[in-house]
Design goal:
single chain, 188 residues, mainly alpha, Hypothetical protein af1432, 10 helices
């Protein structure tokens, strides 16, 4: 399993190329790896772990579903590859600024929350881990924007309770902790 995940991590890293995290000088791949590690604390499902590593590839790179499927089929076999790509597609935002330039952020996020509400429990499990990792980083590095982001995450979590129950609880707890941290910072 580790060898397969390493190959998938390397594929995602290559796909993200020179992209860096928004608030740190780290290569982008550190985020998908952290998301995968959070998921791995709750599941050993290879499609979930692989999709966690790949969750931003279709949205943020030029890699296509077909290229991803072809690559994954060699490593995971056809059925797991198909399942993994399905999860990545479920996690890929449709209502982006690029696709809907005339819509404001609030409208795009509302539509995205409605879309993700219908996704599978496995996709929602990965999204919990994504929220956990992003919330901590944004609160630390951009407290002003964090208020907007945390509110969006809180609303999103209310619409996606189908994933791993324990990880869902951790995501809710993380959002509450981030709100408390922001409130304490604003009192200073």
């Amino acid at each position: 399993m580790e060898e397969a995940l390493e190959k998938i991590r390397d594929f995602a890293d290559k796909a993200h190329g020179s992209q860096l995290r928004k608030y740190t000088p780290e290569r982008y791949i550190v985020h998908p790896v952290r998301v995968m590690e959070i998921c791995r604390s709750y599941t050993q499902n290879m499609s979930v772990l692989a999709a966690a590593l790949l969750h931003d590839v279709l949205e943020d790179t030029s890699v296509t579903k077909e290229e991803m499927l072809s690559f994954l089929a060699e490593i995971l076999g056809h059925d797991k590859a198909v399942r993994t790509v399905k999860l990545v597609v479920e996690l890929t935002d449709i209502y982006t600024k690029q696709n809907y330039p005339k819509w404001n952020r609030k409208k795009r996020k509302l539509k995205e929350s409605q879309r993700i509400e219908a996704t599978s429990g496995e996709a929602q499990t990965i999204k919990y881990a994504d929220i956990i990792d992003n919330c901590k980083e944004i609160v630390e590095h951009d407290p002003e924007f964090a208020w907007v982001f945390i509110k969006e995450c809180k609303g999103l979590l209310m619409k996606m309770p189908k994933g791993n129950t324990d990880l869902y609880g951790l995501a809710i707890s993380t959002v509450k902790d981030c709100i408390a941290r922001l409130e304490s910072q604003s009192l200073k």
